Structure formats: structure tokens, C-alpha cells
Amino acid sequence: MAQNGQSVVVTYPAATATDNNAGGQVQLSYSHPSGSVFNVGVTIVTVLATDPSGNQATCTFVVIVQGMANGILRALISNVWLLHA
């Protein structure tokens, strides 16, 4: 996580999805890909999974970036805190 003023670059593990059809590869797209810049505040990240037949499913998680008095930004991704000094 890299910090720049009141925004921060946040990285997180890739989402996973499977297709019940053997050999079907699921394509994932993110509203905010890992490595995106997040401003202080709450951002909902949506992941869209699409299988070869065009079936789609979505999931969401929340990224919260907090600015603290000592100049440190803190990012919460779901239930995991990442700290950057």
C-alpha cells in the first residue's frame, strides 16, 4: 500500500470463481482493480464473474481508507487492516 496525500494505492488478492462446466474459464472484472488509488472514505468494490456461456455473478467488498491525525493512512479491506506509515 503506497500513500499520496489523502489517497492510497490499495492492493488485495485476486477473486476466484469457478464454472460448473468442465474446462470453462471464468473472466473476472473489477470496478476498482487491485493497485487502484482509493481516496479517504468508503468505496464498494464490485467483482463481475462471467463464464463462457455468458452467465454472470457478482460479489462486493468494502475498502475503507481512514486518514489519521499523525499522517498515517489506514485501509480496511473487508476484515483485514493494512497499515502504512
Name the helicity range.
under 10%
Q: How many separate domains make up the residues?
A: 1
How are strands sequenced across the largest beta sheet? 3-5-6-7-8
- The secondary structure category is mainly beta
End-to-end CA span: 10 Å
**Uncertain spans, ≥5 residues at pLDDT below 50?**
80-85
Order of helices and strands: EEEEEEEE
Question: How much is the radius of gyration in Å?
Answer: 15 Å
Strand content: over 45%
Total strands: the figure is: 8
- What is the 3D form? elongated
Q: What number is the mean pLDDT? A: 82
How would you sum up the major sheet?
A: 5 strands, antiparallel
Number of helices: 0
Description:
The chain is mainly beta and 85 residues long. The chain has one domain (2-10, 24-84). The protein is built from no helices and 8 strands. It has strands spanning 2-4, 7-10, 27-30, 36-39, 41-50, 56-67, 73-77, 80-84. The strands form 2 sheets. The protein has a 5-stranded antiparallel sheet, with no helix packed on it. The N and C termini lie close together (10 Å).
